[in-house]
DNA sequence: TTGACATGCAACTAATAAGTTGCATATAAT
DNA sequence: ATTATATGCAACTTATTAGTTGCATGTCAA
């Protein structure tokens, strides 16, 4: 059974940096924290540290929007769309 | 042409009190600020002042999620679902 | 026109959240 | 083993925002 924490999901989506992270994750199946960090800084011109991004990831993971596993030296991160499925139900349709 | 301020929309949805406001507005076609205030306080047990709610409404209106007109003594408020339509496009479907 | 009612505006406080710095730990490669 | 690489953790600072108080404005009814 899946915990429905709409609150955490909406909060997570409220930050623009986190939405860019999801945009990036939406493009490839999985990515390391390091890869993601360089992409955000280089491609999106964000001025943020790796630790800053790690905190955003913690928020996204808490909301269930991101899942991650440690693979050797790397932390592999992937987008979980499930919490988004019926998010706007009750207001739309 | 409609301005697409996803940023303001996501921010607006990030607060639980504002989501309750939308829930209430979703139930009837329009409501006065006064009506809304009493509903939030009585029905939802929120401890918040009228001014606090007015500020939330300003945020929602900025995001285009709410529209309001002054009718005589009252301010009539209604839910505008339009900004929600394709909000999750790019991530879902 | 006077009083009651509904709302608007602005300054302030308090809570939350974004982002940083500094250091520790774990794995890979040489 | 030792070094470089990738990440984890915690305390701190700063920015943002929720919420309040106090007063002003506008409208309706008597």
Automatic annotation (TrEMBL), chains A, B:
Pfam annotation, one family: HTH_20
Source taxon at top rank: Bacteria
Keyword list, A-Z: DNA-binding, Transcription, Transcription regulation
Coiled-coil blocks: none
UniProt cross-references to SUPFAM superfamilies, sorted A to Z: Winged helix' DNA-binding domain
Keyword Transferase attributed: no
Record-annotated HTH arsR-type domain positions: 1-93
Protein name: Uncharacterized HTH-type transcriptional regulator yuzN
Organism of origin: Thermobacillus xylanilyticus
Gene: txxe 1229-yuzN
